[in-house]
Write a structure and sequence with these properties.
InterPro entries: AB_hydrolase_1, AB_hydrolase_fold, AB_hydrolase_sf, Epox_hydrolase-like. By secondary structure, this protein is of the alpha/beta class. The protein has ten helices and ten strands. It has one domain: Rossmann fold (3-Layer(aba) Sandwich), CATH 3.40.50.
């Protein structure tokens, strides 16, 4: 499986048996010299007194089945990691729209911006409006699941079906973890390195098991941390962490009326602010084998597909199982 077109890795260094650590080249704030798997388009947004550019890919099938699906990325990712998903959906006749949210990927990184899931949903709708798309299937992974949830609640008439792949926000992190100011979050972000990013992913995503297919997505965010532009990226990362902590969607799942599928890797333990929670509460956070079932009960008529012994990224870790569950729901 080919995940990215241009080489980010310029050398490999073993730091522990079975674990590789990349030497990566610096990446600027807009990922200017990183080639996405499909052509990147930009729309101009005037938002909160900012002139912004929002990037997206529009993957059109050779033979259309008349259906459109929009793929929404997670917080530590961008639209490029949907490459294989987009290819296979396109081969089956779907038109695939893949935005980079403002603050992520090849989209603008505003430094004076009030991030909210409602604002991200509005920005996402602007792409559909630009493309004159009235309705779409919406798939959101991780933070993208929170964006997809808010989008569906705000614009239910635009959503044919909703798929949530290991979404964060299935619980209210404020009820577990202490508040962290944006300034504190920013200082924490500035300390990130390839090693700290990898340790976080190993702990919460992959259960200390590393595979080569995870490496490109680590290398991208690690490359940012090596560039002089990184403070801009880190500031937006702090703002979006604050958004996730302070804007839970879990209390509104009961209001979702569109057909919904939950794809849940049950080994996932991702939880925002877990390190700030009391030690006795930390083991109770991010229990996806329980959160998936709880959320399925809250969304009337929804379907749950649990993938045992899989972490935060089913569409990377066990792609065939992920795609089969997705396609069975949308075909």
């Amino acid at each position: 499986m080919k995940y990215f077109k241009n080489a980010v890795v310029i050398g490999m260094l073993s730091i522990a048996p079975g674990i590789m650590f990349s030497q990566v080249r610096p990446m600027d704030v807009m990922l200017s010299d990183y080639q996405y798997p499909y052509e990147v388009h930009l729309i101009n947004l005037k938002s909160q007194n900012n002139d912004l550019k929002m990037a997206y890919m529009d993957v059109r099938p050779k033979t259309s089945n008349g259906k459109i699906i929009m793929l929404l990325h997670g917080k530590n990712f961008n639209g490029a990691y949907w490459e294989q998903t987009a290819k296979d959906l396109s081969d089956k006749g779907f038109r695939v729209i893949i935005p980079d949210q403002i603050g992520f990927g090849k989209s603008s990184k505003p430094q004076n911006y009030q991030f909210s899931f409602s604002q991200l949903a509005e920005n996402t709708k602007a792409i559909l409006d630009e493309l004159k798309i009235d309705q779409t299937i919406v798939l959101g992974h991780s933070m993208g699941g929170m964006v997809a949830t808010r989008f569906t609640l705000l614009y239910p008439e635009r959503v044919q079906k909703l798929i949530l792949e290991n979404p964060i926000g299935l619980e209210d992190y404020k009820t577990f973890a202490a508040y962290q100011t944006i300034d504190q979050a920013y200082q924490s972000e500035l300390k990130n390195t390839a090693e700290t990013y990898k340790n976080y992913q190993l702990k919460f995503y992959y259960d200390n098991k590393w595979k080569s297919e995870y490496q490109p997505w680590l290398d991208l965010i690690a490359g940012w941390a090596l560039h002089p532009d990184y403070p801009k990226v880190a500031w937006d990362a702090a703002l979006t962490s604050d958004m996730i902590y302070n804007q839970p969607v879990c209390y509104e799942f009961k209001n979702i009326k569109v057909p919904t599928l939950l794809i849940i890797g049950t080994r996932d333990r991702t939880a925002i602010g877990k390190d700030r929670a009391p030690k006795e509460l930390q083991p109770k956070m991010g229990q996806y084998q329980e959160l998936g079932k709880k959320t399925q009960k809250e969304i009337a008529g929804s379907k749950l597909v649990e993938i045992e012994n899989v972490g935060h990224l089913p569409h990377i870790e066990v792609y065939p199982k992920f795609f089969n569950a997705l396609y069975d729901f949308i075909k």
